[in-house]
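Progress note, sequence design subtask.
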């Protein structure tokens, strides 16, 4: 039983950094009806969307009043995202410190993993609140324009390893 728990914990520990790096990779749209902003690890892209709306205010038909309402929300979101990244990095380092010894304390390791999950959940909820607040500022037509603008964002495609030509 201990071996199973240990292997599961090690899998989580080594997967967390891998998934945190994956969040910066472009997400493919799914046919399941979930929006691009709801993808796991993609909540930080919400700031990009808000920044694009502000930068392309004329194209979206935003009024000066709408832009003035969006700017503080955007700035606050950027601050929260910076705090989230720092808190995640610290929590991951703390977990690695706990696991440095051969016979590490399972209770402490479990607590550290739960802390990482809590940090991530709190961040997602904050981003959802900001997203909701942002969307109340937009008209239905502006929201449609924003969605269209976000879907036109080019995705980088890299060849799959199996698809590369052998020389």
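Output:
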């Amino acid at each position: 039983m201990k071996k199973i728990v240990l292997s599961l914990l090690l899998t989580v520990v080594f997967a967390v950094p891998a998934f945190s790096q994956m969040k910066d990779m472009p997400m493919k749209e799914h046919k399941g009806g979930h929006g691009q902003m709801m993808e796991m690890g993609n909540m930080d892209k919400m700031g990009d969307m808000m920044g694009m709306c502000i930068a392309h205010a004329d194209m979206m038909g935003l009024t000066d009043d709408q832009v003035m309402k969006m700017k503080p929300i955007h700035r606050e979101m950027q601050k929260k995202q910076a705090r989230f990244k720092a808190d995640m990095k610290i929590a991951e380092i703390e977990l690695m410190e706990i696991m440095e010894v051969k016979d590490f304390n399972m209770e402490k390791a479990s607590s550290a993993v739960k802390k990482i999950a809590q940090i991530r959940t709190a961040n997602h909820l904050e981003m959802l609140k900001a997203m909701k607040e942002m969307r109340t500022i937009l008209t239905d037509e502006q929201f449609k324009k924003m969605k269209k603008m976000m879907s036109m964002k080019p995705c980088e495609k890299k060849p799959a390893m199996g698809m590369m030509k052998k020389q």
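DSSP finds six helices and no strands in the chain. Work on this subtask will continue into the next period as scheduled.
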